[in-house]
């Protein structure tokens, strides 16, 4: 039973992410359309898109198709592995496989796969997108790390079930935790690669960047990974910063968790639908400012505030 | 059966004899190469037997060779655990480098190998000696010069290029400054030594100095502080610590032949790390710790390490020459080693429930990173050598699409790139993980460590960015004009662009070690734990007693009572299973595959000027950090590239 539980939990998390991710995407598109006074596609459109893409012709433009396949498969595989490390209404199933530092680096790895996929495709537009995406990652990785580290400093532990349980507020509601909540809210769009920080894809400008050359099943997998990332980052955010209600009886606590995630997705949609894209240099300046604030929060956390 | 000390002396003797022999046969490149490889392998076998003995049975006793008591002169050799780890690293890099040299050195048509193999072997012998001598003055000087002068000759191997001569001169001058600084430091510590210890023992020996240190620390704190500051400067220059590293290292590494670059970066600069650890942590006996401002030195080293890792990596991000980029990353990675060592020094005297354990974790990380950096940076320089051999250039702007032509080199380069960037399941992650655990949780005892840790995490993202560029623009992307020409030419000569088996083997060996230590890092931690157990002197006793790591192959790494853990095998299993699921998912629609060229918005054909090259990457970040220096020279012919103005976003 003791060894079976993480396996079942992991399977459950993977299944939840796979099932729910296109639904969130559908909601996102529908709400965006309504905000922009359009009718919008049916809410199940994302499922239809994925199914349709799986059967379409797969054009490989790169010089090393094996590398393209490998990095695309790995991209979704990493995201699904991540799902096992993130609490989704109950503690993370793979608590025993790694700690919060691993989580930070795995999140980066999932980005790296997309970058490799784009590099293998070899289009100039892909490479422009990769350069931008990597610059965004440089700024975002330490931001997320500060949030995790503040939790780890407050609780003295790196365990996922300890850190991803509202650990930023472990000592009452400290100043550092509140500052980090604000910082993460202000940068959340970038973590899930939505407007105004979808600079690396920028459909109207560099035609989806790293994804530009992909079609058919590979595009389906990359899109799937992107949708799954929205779910996973939202779950992480809720687990880290909005722990209230987790103590409810199992079923209710689980519902409360997904309700919070859903609200967060709506918030992302609202911001995305009402903002225009930033340029990469503007975005970097913005992240640098946030990183400065985050560093102040980290120092405050060190002194117990 | 030889004692470890005798084995080390024998291997030094073997290498020196080998230097003479290879000089004699140097007219024939192949014979000299195989001879040098055989001698390197022989000395490696001797060293490995010594290391195995020390780790299995604990250290033997220091032994003296070449005694001249009248002038306080004797070659006193002592192989303990700490020395063993560095010796192990030396052979792990030297043997592949020697094998790689055999074929690689043949491509220098204008230069003979008479100046190469003898110097290579002397260089190796000097490192064995420097890592195991206990003499802080004479034999330190002898081995240091034996390392510096052949190193100088190797860096200026291609002596018809003026920039190589300049690089070698800089290296020589910096190493002599380092030598003088370290020797003055030793003299300051030994100045009262002779009187206190009598005439039988050696004045400049570790044991003598260590025995005299308590009195000196209590009586003359300023003098000892000056001595330790000089050690920090001396070894800092050797390691490539900021601000000294930027002076010599980025010029010296690219100038040398690639296997020597691997040795310089993989092993030689680690002798500085060895010196730093040995002098700051092992020299001061536990009885004198109260008078020894270890925490302050730790703060200095950790902060210098943080500056080093950030500046080195940020400057590396700007580079467009393959080996120069790698050289700057050596500075960056040395910063991690300094940070781990500094955190250990800062936390060791701190009061707190876990301070000693955290110090030990940080030190494990630093020592593991020493090993890892040797492996993946050695590999990267060999990769760069293969690329140089295939394309004839170090310029990343002219490369592209090499993976199609040299798949094996590409795969090993990918492994090395992911390792150095700290991607989980590769060895670089395990050591960085350990350093981060030590520094983040140590933040409660020394507040600045938390900020250092975040800068280190930021820097590992920078490292990743740099290697995405390095790997992407050279092996992936689109085939460049240069590569296309070279491939066509090699087809005419009925030869592939990929390097031969004798150059592939060393690369595969190092890549396999990177993966092995990444998936089962507990192996390395057991090795380091055993090594610390076999070097119980000074602060080493506290570190050995702390024994922070639990775990095994399947459970991975666990410390602090399981509050920090990393089980790579479990993770790899899950990843592999999910990968299979994803593969199946992608096949469900039975989609047809077709190959085609990338779409270029309707332009007919892709030309060389449409390629997105190394120069174009990360324009904004490069611009914001222009003040940090290290900008490459303006590109010749950049004017002909209409994309450079508009595509550097």
Structural notes for this entry:
- By secondary structure, chain A is an all-alpha fold.
- Chain A has one domain (4-302).
- In chain A, 70% of the residues lie in helices and 1% in strands.
- Chain A is built from eleven helices and one strand; from the N terminus they run H-H-E-H-H-H-H-H-H-H-H-H.
- In chain B, strands 3-4-5 form a three-stranded antiparallel β-sheet.
- The model of chain B is unreliable at 194-199 and 638-649 (pLDDT under 50).
- Strand 1 of chain A pairs parallel with strand 6 (593-595) of chain B.
Total helical elements of chain B:
24
Low-confidence stretches of chain A: none
- Mean pLDDT rating of chain B: 85
**Biggest interface, CB < 8 A:** A-B, 88 and 83 residues
Question: Can you tell me the overall shape of chain A?
Answer: globular
Number of strands of chain B: 6
Strand content of chain B: under 5%
List descriptors:
heterodimer, A: 305 residues, mainly alpha, 11 helices, 1% strand, globular, B: 649 residues, 3-stranded antiparallel sheet
Topology diagram in text:
The complex is a heterodimer of chains A (305) and B (649).
Chain A: H1 4-35, H2 45-54, E1 58-60, H3 65-84, H4 100-121, H5 124-155, H6 160-163, H7 175-191, H8 203-206, H9 216-241, H10 250-274, H11 280-302
Helix pairs in contact in A: 1-2, 1-3, 1-9, 1-10, 2-9, 3-4, 3-9, 4-5, 5-7, 5-11, 7-9, 7-11, 9-10
Chain B: H1 4-24, H2 29-57, E1 63-68, E2 73-77, H3 81-104, H4 117-132, H5 138-155, H6 162-190, H7 193-197, H8 206-219, H9 221-239, H10 245-255, H11 258-282, H12 294-317, H13 322-347, H14 355-391, H15 402-405, H16 407-420, H17 427-442, H18 448-475, H19 481-492, H20 501-519, H21 521-533, H22 540-546, E3 550-552, E4 556-559, E5 564-566, H23 568-587, E6 593-595, H24 619-624
Antiparallel strand pairs in B: 1-2, 3-4, 4-5
């Amino acid at each position: 039973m003791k060894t079976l539980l993480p396996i079942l939990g992991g399977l459950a998390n993977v299944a939840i992410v796979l099932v729910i991710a296109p639904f969130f995407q559908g909601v996102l598109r529908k709400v965006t359309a309504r905000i922009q006074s359009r009718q919008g596609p049916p809410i199940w459109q994302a499922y239809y898109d994925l199914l349709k893409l799986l059967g379409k012709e797969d054009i490989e433009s790169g010089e090393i198709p094996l590398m393209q396949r490998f990095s695309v498969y790995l991209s979704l595989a990493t995201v699904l592995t991540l799902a096992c490390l993130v609490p989704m209404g109950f503690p993370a199933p793979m608590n025993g496989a790694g700690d919060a530092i691993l989580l930070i680096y795995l999140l980066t790895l999932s980005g790296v796969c997309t970058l490799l996929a784009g590099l293998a495709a070899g289009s100039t537009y892909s490479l422009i997108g990769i350069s931008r995406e990597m610059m965004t990652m440089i700024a975002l990785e330490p931001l997320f790390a500060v949030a995790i580290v503040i939790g780890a400093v407050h609780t003295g532990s790196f365990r996922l079930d300890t850190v991803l349980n509202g650990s930023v507020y472990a000592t009452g509601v400290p100043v550092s935790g509140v500052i980090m909540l604000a910082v993460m809210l202000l940068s959340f769009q970038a973590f899930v690669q939505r407007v105004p920080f979808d600079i690396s894809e920028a459909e109207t400008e560099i035609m989806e960047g790293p994804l530009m050359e992909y079609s058919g099943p590979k595009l389906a997998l990359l899109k799937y990974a992107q949708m799954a990332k929205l779910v996973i980052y939202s779950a992480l955010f809720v687990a880290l910063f909005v722990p209230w209600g987790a103590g409810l009886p199992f079923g209710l606590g689980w519902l409360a968790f997904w309700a919070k995630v859903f609200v967060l997705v709506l918030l992302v949609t609202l911001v995305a639908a009402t903002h225009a894209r930033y340029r990469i240099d503007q975005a970097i300046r913005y992240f640098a400012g946030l990183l400065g604030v985050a560093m102040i929060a980290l120092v405050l956390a060190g002194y117990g505030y | 059966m030889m004692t470890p000390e005798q084995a080390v002396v024998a291997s030094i003797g073997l290498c020196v004899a080998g230097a003479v022999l290879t000089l004699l046969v140097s007219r024939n490149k192949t014979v000299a190469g195989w001879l040098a490889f055989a001698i390197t392998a022989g000395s490696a076998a001797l060293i490995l037997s010594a290391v195995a003995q020390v780790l299995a049975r604990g250290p033997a006793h220091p032994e003296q060779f070449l005694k001249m008591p009248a002038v306080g002169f004797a070659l006193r050799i002592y192989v303990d655990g700490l020395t063993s780890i560095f010796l192990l690293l030396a052979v792990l890099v030297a043997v592949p480098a020697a094998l790689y040299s055999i074929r690689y050195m043949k491509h220098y048509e204008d230069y003979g190998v008479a100046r190469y193999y003898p110097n290579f072997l002397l260089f190796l012998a000097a490192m064995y000696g420097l890592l195991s001598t206990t003499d802080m003055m004479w034999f330190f000087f002898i081995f240091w010069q034996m390392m510096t002068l052949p190193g100088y000759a190797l860096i200026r191997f291609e002596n018809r290029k003026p920039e190589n001569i300049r690089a070698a001169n800089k290296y020589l001058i910096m190493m002599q400054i380092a030598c003088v600084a370290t020797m003055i430091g030793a003299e300051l510590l030994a100045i009262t030594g002779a009187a206190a210890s009598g005439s039988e023992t050696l004045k400049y020996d570790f044991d003598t100095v260590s025995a005299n240190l308590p009195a000196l620390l209590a009586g003359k704190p300023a003098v000892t502080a000056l001595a330790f500051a000089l050690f920090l400067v001396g070894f800092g220059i050797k390691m490539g610590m900021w601000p000294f590293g930027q002076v010599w290292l980025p010029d010296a590494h690219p100038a040398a032949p690639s296997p020597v670059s691997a040795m310089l970066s993989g092993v030689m600069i680690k002798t500085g790390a060895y010196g730093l650890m040995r002098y700051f942590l092992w020299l001061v006996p536990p009885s004198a710790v109260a008078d020894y401002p270890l925490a302050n030195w730790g703060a200095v080293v950790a902060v210098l390490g943080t500056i080093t890792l950030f500046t080195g990596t940020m400057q590396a991000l700007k580079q467009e020459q393959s080996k120069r980029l790698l050289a700057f990353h050596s500075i960056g990675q040395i910063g991690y080693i300094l940070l781990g060592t500094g955190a250990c020094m800062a936390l060791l005297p701190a009061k707190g429930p876990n301070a000693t354990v955290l110090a030990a974790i940080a030190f494990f990380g630093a020592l593991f990173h020493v090993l890892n950096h040797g492996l993946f940076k050695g590999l990267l320089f060999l990769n760069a050598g293969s690329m140089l051999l295939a394309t004839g250039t170090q310029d990343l702007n002219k490369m592209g699409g090499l993976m199609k032509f040299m798949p094996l080199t590409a795969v090993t380069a990918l492994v090395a790139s992911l390792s150095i960037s700290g991607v989980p399941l590769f060895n670089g992650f395990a050591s960085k993980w350990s350093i981060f655990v030590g520094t983040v949780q140590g933040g409660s005892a020394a507040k600045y460590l938390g900020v250092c840790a975040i800068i280190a995490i930021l820097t590992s993202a920078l490292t990743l960015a740099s290697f995405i560029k390095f790997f992407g623009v050279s092996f992936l992307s689109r085939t460049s004009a240069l590569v296309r020409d070279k491939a066509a030419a090699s087809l005419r000569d009925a030869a592939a662009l990929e390097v031969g088996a004798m150059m592939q083997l060393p690369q595969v060996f190092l890549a396999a070690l990177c993966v092995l230590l990444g998936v089962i890092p507990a192996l390395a931690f057991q090795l380091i734990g055993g090594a610390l157990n076999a070097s119980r002197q000074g602060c080493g006793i506290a570190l050995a007693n702390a024994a922070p790591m639990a775990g095994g192959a399947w459970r991975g790494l666990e410390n602090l009572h399981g509050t920090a853990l990393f089980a790579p095998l479990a993770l790899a299993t899950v990843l592999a299973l999910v990968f299979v699921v994803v593969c199946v998912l992608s096949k469900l629609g039975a989609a047809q595959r077709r190959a085609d060229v990338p779409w270029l918005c309707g332009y007919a054909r892709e030309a060389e000027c449409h390629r997105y090259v190394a120069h174009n990457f990360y324009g904004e970040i490069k611009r914001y950090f222009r003040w940090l220096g290290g900008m490459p020279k303006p590109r010749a012919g950049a004017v002909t590239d209409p994309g450079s103005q508009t595509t550097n976003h």
